[in-house]
Amino acid sequence: MKKKDAKKLTKDQAIKDIDKLKKDLFNFRFQKINGQLTNPSKINETKKNIARLKTFVERKINA
Length: 63
Known about the structure:
By secondary structure, this protein is an all-alpha fold. The chain contains three helices and no strands.
């Protein structure tokens, strides 16, 4: 998710996306342990997307 895509979301949509990304990250970790993960960079990308959305939500709350 790009920064400009995150700005288009509402606060509620961003929170739902964070929850979805956390579930995806959990699944990626299990896939990594089992050797089923084909693209390990998905883990770092997902972590960064979660951080972006959390920052966006915090800014919405403080604004």
